[in-house]
Amino acid sequence: MEETNKEATKDEIKYRGIRAMPFVIGNETFEKLGTIGSSSNLLVYLTSIFHLKTITATNIVNIFNGTCNFGTLLGAFLSDTYFGRYNVLAFASVSSFLGMLVLSFTASVSKLHPPECENQGTAPVCVGPTTGQLTFLLGGFGLLVIGASGIRPCSLAFGADQFDPNTESGRRGISSFFNWYYFTRTFAVMVSLTVIVYVQTNISWSLGLAIPAIIMFLSCALFFVGTNIYVRFVPKGSPLSSVAQVLVAAFKKRHLQLPQQPCFSLFNYVPSNSLNSMLPYTDQFRFLNKAAIKTPEDQINSSDGSAVNPWRLCSIQQVEEVKCLLRVIPIWVAGTIYYVSVVQSQNYVIFQALQSDNQLGHINFHIPPASFIVISMLSITIWLPIYDRVLLPWLRKFTGKEDGITLLQKMGIGIFLSIVTMVISGIVEDKRRTLAITRPMLQMTQGKGAISSMSGLWLIPQLALLGLSEAFTLISENEFFYKQCPENMRSIAASLFFVGMAGSSYLSSFLASLVHKTSSWLDEDLNKGKLDYFYYLIAALEILNLGYFLVCAKWYKYKGRAGDNKVRERKDQNEIVM
């Protein structure tokens, strides 16, 4: 969209929809190829090339990943408040490219990394990095953090912005976009974890880190090529300030009584340049409605009808926008707890694979344990096109809904599938451990124990179900945040997903540490532990989470729409999940 059209009203915006998708999705695909290709093998790179101790390298990688996820809050705030999604994405994409370029230099330029280890006697002698080398490396990480903090919360919302939410074709386009976005994203991650990681590990770190940098350059180029056809919304002030104003005004007027007909009596002012849709009055969080009670002390600007002091008098529309944000928080909590099962499955399935027979058939090829994770991604890439092109049209005809089934229904199905995944994981682990004890193979796993004669291919069902569960829950959660939060808070809403992922990782670590200290379930040697019990514990946690989610979904009211200055209640406001 041209710069001169940025101030246009919503009715004047020319949505390009599907025409913008090759640039948006292509940018995201290349960006993920580059980012995952650079970061997925960092632990190996830091220990083998920079000769850092395992604990030091682990801490650096954990801090890097955590900062990337929590940094999305800052990126989202800057996007929604000052710069807009396009500008933040442009700046963050260039920052990511420069970060990858710095990382590739640390591998290709000999003076930017320590010399190779020298064999002296029985043990190799390795020299650690100098202060300058480590500073240059951390500078690259800093650029990558800046890039991730801007790209992650804005990319998905920016792509969905290209569709008109006020038309049926636009709303269907948004739903399909979310599916195809994750399809290409997952495909890119698969390629990064296989092809690029193989090049880094077995051919050359210089080449293996140069490839992501080149790919990220292509991502930036593709993004800027589509500049003239993008819809770019200009932020209209801080959405967080709006939230604070409602909370403060409601507190100041906490002793006032609400009128009997609040939807007609409360102060209702809508700025002419507002990005947000008109919302109907709702009874949830009624105490916040007091922020819109007009008293004799409240003054109104004669020029535009706005409140002179927005920290004392807020519009009911402003109050309803804050309610939208508050309503999604309980759903976000359920999504965060759900992701614990994903984290634990991805972690411990690798240890299961380490102590299973990974030989593929009768040929002399053994599947690397870490490669089993690709199965869940493959499950997602297979399921999403089938759902979008085959199942979704049928569901639309059957239910009469644009989305086939509601977003909360899809999330509920995903959480239920996570329970089934954990139960199957426990059953398979019990079988693996039994065979490891009764019919072990001749070789042993270093630092672990006997290898079970059970084929590692028995891990496929739980991983395939895990991918299917993610396809239902995580995609729906992101689409839910985008559609249910006010338009001027969508980047902040997208950042909730990544903050939830970070919280899930910390919660998973806490849970695993607690179980390890209080029981012998998570022994280094799985044959001596009871990993199946741990899986059943996660299943029980997800059962409680599903119950909590159903209660929240029953309570939840979907964001309504008000058109022609009249309030219209959505038919599916009170629809429950299952």
Automatic annotation (TrEMBL):
Record's subcellular location: Membrane
Listed name of the protein: Protein NRT1/ PTR FAMILY 2.10
Transmembrane segments: 86-105, 136-159, 180-199, 205-231, 365-387, 407-428, 492-512, 533-556
Keyword Transmembrane helix: yes
Major location (coarse): membrane
Species for this entry: Capsicum annuum
Family: Belongs to the major facilitator superfamily. Proton-dependent oligopeptide transporter (POT/PTR) (TC 2.A.17) family.
A Pfam match: PTR2
Molecular functions (GO terms): transmembrane transporter activity
Membrane topology: Multi-pass membrane protein
GO biological process, one term: transmembrane transport
CDD domains: MFS_NPF1_2
UniProt superkingdom: Eukaryota
One GO term describing the cellular component: plasma membrane
Alphabetized UniProt keyword annotations: Membrane, Transmembrane, Transmembrane helix
